[in-house]
Amino acid sequence: DAGITQSPRHKVTETGTPVTLRCHQTENHRYMYWYRQDPGHGLRLIHYSYGVKDTDKGEVSDGYSVSRSKTEDFLLTLESATSSQTSVYFCAISSLAGLTYNEQFFGPGTRLTVL
Amino acid sequence: AQSVSQHNHHVILSEAASLELGCNYSYGGTVNLFWYVQYPGQHLQLLLKYFSGDPLVKGIKGFEAEFIKSKFSFNLRKPSVQWSDTAEYFCAVKDGTDKLIFGTGTRLQVFP
C-alpha cells in the first residue's frame, strides 16, 4: 500500500466548531486530493493540490478550505462544521511519470460526525 | 461537465455467476479510465486501468474491462465471482484535467 496516513481516523464534533483533518504521505507525490464519500453520491472531490501552496477547488468545495505548506502534508479544514458535512473523508495522492498521469492511491479515510 | 454513470446500483449474485458492471462517461476526448474496489470498511484500491493500447484490460483478482470508445463505455467483467468479491465498485474517468470523476458506485453482494 502507498504510504498515506490520515488523522484522526474518527472524530465526533458539534455544529459550529472548526475541524482540521490531516493527510500525510511518504511517497513524495506531487498531487494530493480530498474527497468525501456519501451513500448514493460516490466520491466527490472537495479540493486538490498540484504542488506546495498550489491548490484548486473541486465540485463540493463550499465550507471547506485546504492548505499545503509541505509536499507531504495536505490539510482539510471545516471552518464551522455543519451536520451536512458528516461523511467519510478520503485523501488520495498521485504522480506524473513524464507526461503520463498515474492512478490515485487512497488513504484509510476519516469518519467525521457533526452533531 | 464530465460525468460518469454507473447504472447498476446494487447487484446480487451467487458464487460462480458471471458479472458485468456498466460504466459510461460523457467526455468526448482522450480519457484515462479506472475501476476501483472498496471492500467493507476499507479504502479504495485500484482494480485496473486503461490509458491506451489494447482496449481489453486485465486487472487483479480475475477482473477485466473493455473500453469501447464509440459507446463511451468501460464495463467491468468477471467470469465467475466469489464471495470475497463482495464490495463496492467505482468507475472513474480522467479527462484533460488533473482530476478524476467518479461514478456513484455499484454495490455487489455475492452469496455462497
Can I get a quick summary?
The complex is a heterodimer of chains A (115) and B (112). Chain A has strands spanning 4-7, 10-13, 19-25, 31-38, 42-51, 54-57, 64-70, 73-78, 87-94, 96-97, 100-101, 105-106, 110-114.
Blueprint (SSEs and pairs):
The complex is a heterodimer of chains A (115) and B (112).
Chain A: E1 4-7, E2 10-13, E3 19-25, E4 31-38, E5 42-51, E6 54-57, E7 64-70, E8 73-78, E9 87-94, E10 96-97, E11 100-101, E12 105-106, E13 110-114
Parallel strand pairs in A: 2-13
Antiparallel strand pairs in A: 1-3, 3-8, 4-5, 4-9, 5-6, 7-8, 9-12, 9-13, 10-11
Chain B: E1 4-5, E2 10-14, E3 19-21, E4 24-25, E5 32-38, E6 44-50, E7 56-58, E8 64-68, E9 73-78, E10 87-94, E11 100-102, E12 106-111
Parallel strand pairs in B: 2-12
Antiparallel strand pairs in B: 1-4, 3-9, 5-6, 5-10, 7-8, 8-9, 10-11, 10-12
What does this structure look like?
The complex is a heterodimer of chains A (115) and B (112). Chain A is mainly β. Chain A has no helices and 13 strands. Chain A has strands spanning 4-7, 10-13, 19-25, 31-38, 42-51, 54-57, 64-70, 73-78, 87-94, 96-97, 100-101, 105-106, 110-114. Chain A is globular and about 40 Å long. Chain A starts with a strand and ends with a strand. Chain B is mainly beta. Helix content of chain B is 0%, strand content 51%. Chain B has strands at 4-5, 10-14, 19-21, 24-25, 32-38, 44-50, 56-58, 64-68, 73-78, 87-94, 100-102, 106-111. In chain B, the strands form three sheets. In chain B, strands 2, 5, 6, 10, 11 and 12 form a six-stranded mixed beta sheet that branches. A four-stranded antiparallel beta sheet of chain B has the order 3-9-8-7, with no helix packed on it. The relative contact order of chain B is 0.34. The chains are: A mainly beta (115), B mainly beta (112).
